[in-house]
Amino acid sequence: MIYIFLGPPGSGKGTQAKKLAVKLNVPHVAVGDMLREAVNKESEIGKQVKSFMEEGKLVPDEVTIKLTEERLKKDDCKNGLILDGFPRSAKQALALDLILDGKNFKVIYFYVSLEAVVERNSGRLSCKCGAVFHIKYNPSKREDICDKCGEKLYQRNDDNPEVIRNRYKVYEESTRPLIEFYEKKNRLVKIEAEGSIDDVYKRLLEVIDK
Ligand code: AMP
């Protein structure tokens, strides 16, 4: 099964996607992570998208569509995957229909309040290895040090209150309409994403095909 995780930035979909991907033994395809990697490597794509990401804007559709299409073609995606952070616009949703080409998929929509979004994003600490912590809800064992690889944790450039609000605004304008789009196609399952990581994970498991 292909699961598409939809929700505002800070809804916890990345955290849940990582847990579920391990359980289902499928890849977690996070478009934001791929873009950040490109920026860190200073690749051509990285140079194109850096300023959009720093301002909390969507990077151009052409870039994310191509990146996602190439990633989804890889062998490891053959037996299912979790797609996190794509689609984020109507154009991306239409492109994804073509990429999936009739394959079965389910969209899981994580809903949370704006207050929770700001609190979760502003307390988030990330690691280069992909691990993510939260100073209050999911602290690392040693302050500012990654539990998984021992590297120093950092705050993402776009996790400051001003950019977080902008990302939420962009979500409301461009991504929220996709909820109705997938509802009409009978693909949408909603999950209340407030509460602890374990509470949300339990709700998630209830809607995953057994
Ligand atoms: P995320 O890690 O999912 O919070 O994404 C971080 C940033 O990457 C977003 O604020 C956008 O600038 C960019 N981004 C990630 N996914 C997409 C997408 N599907 N379309 C456009 N921009 C994206």
What attributes characterize this protein structure?
single chain, 210 residues, alpha/beta, Rossmann fold, five-stranded parallel sheet, two-stranded antiparallel ribbon, 9 helices, globular, binds adenosine monophosphate
Topology:
Layout: E1 2-6, H1 13-24, E2 28-30, H2 31-41, H3 44-54, H4 61-72, E3 81-84, H5 90-100, E4 105-111, H6 114-122, E5 124-126, E6 132-134, H7 161-175, H8 177-184, E7 188-192, H9 197-207
Parallel strand pairs: 1-3, 1-4, 2-3, 4-7
Antiparallel strand pairs: 5-6
Helix pairs in contact: 1-9, 2-3, 4-5, 6-7
The structure holds adenosine monophosphate.
List the domain count as a whole number. 1
CATH topology heading: Rossmann fold
User: What hetero molecules are bound to the protein chains?
Assistant: adenosine monophosphate
CATH superfamily: P-loop containing nucleotide triphosphate hydrolases
Could you report the average pLDDT, rounded to the nearest whole number?
A: 95
Rg, Cα atoms, Å: 16 Å
Trace the largest sheet across and list its strands: 2-3-1-4-7
Counted by DSSP, the helix tally is 9
- What's the total number of strands? 7
| Name of the top-level CATH class | Alpha Beta
Q: What is the N-to-C succession of helices and strands?
A: EHEHHHEHEHEEHHEH
Q: What class, by secondary structure content?
A: alpha/beta
